[in-house]
Amino acid sequence: MSSIELLEGAPVALGGPRGFAVTRTLPNRQRRMVGAWCFLDAYGPHDLSAAGDAGMRVGPHPHTGLQTVTWLVAGEVLHRDCLGNTQEIRPGQLNLMTAGRGISHSEETPASHSAVIHGVQLWVALPHADRDMPPAFAHHEDLPVVADGGLSATVLIGTFAGATSPARSHTPLVGAELTLAAGASARLPLSADFEYAVLALDGAADVDGVSLKPGPLLYLGAGRTSVSVSTGSASRLLLLGGEPFAERLVMWWNFVARDHDEIVHMRADWVAGTPRFGEVHGYDGPPIPAPPMPITRLVPRGSTR
């Protein structure tokens, strides 16, 4: 069984120094991936009641080679993409966008919104066989929920405790939100073939003897068939897992590729406005420009640094 790692997050401002603040725990200095999960931003709870606070505003931008997973604890996010989809997401619902060979989208707090926004944005790397598939978008409002005593689990993707999400994944994967009542304890069933990590969204919990609060990601490793969780006060956790991802990736800006030259071509297509990434309609603002390429060649890397 792999040893536990507590992966501290890095503060990031989406859209520049004064942008929307998030905490990024994947990719991390110690570990780049958990299964095919290759990116994790957590944000909030963020108070939107202050005058002039527009909340999240992420202009049209491209993606390749991945799926985006949007999950909210509180608030609303409005998604628009180049396929013509406009979808508001709320807590308990899942937005799943498959970039494939190329897609662009925007995300923003809608004009009519709650006082608080709180959630996570995740990416899932597509395997080689599916990374150039046509882009797609799905919104799931009816997700399976399993309950046992003081534990309730909503299955975002994959299968957990016998319940399977309708969301489509392309590698063996699981994501579940765990809600624990005050004083609850449980032993979560896990697959020995998967590696797992847990993020605290609300409150604090004891996970396999480690006190976990919002901020860091607790990597649990592989080879486990279960893990214990308990809490003194009500808490909410995000469980992520999947078969270790064997392919080496290049992740740069919003792209997932296999080598430096692919990234160069992806960036050039976005800058040139080719049909590859289409056009997002309805967002009140410009597309996000691509940053300059690094001066050294990007090197494919595995799941650990």
Automatic annotation (TrEMBL):
It comes from Paractinoplanes durhamensis. InterPro entries: Pirin, Pirin_C_dom, Pirin_N_dom, RmlC-like_jellyroll, RmlC_Cupin_sf. This is Pirin. Gene3D superfamilies: Jelly Rolls (2.60.120.10). Pfam families: Pirin, Pirin_C. Residues 20-124 form the Pirin N-terminal domain. Belongs to the pirin family. Residues 177-273 form the Pirin C-terminal domain.
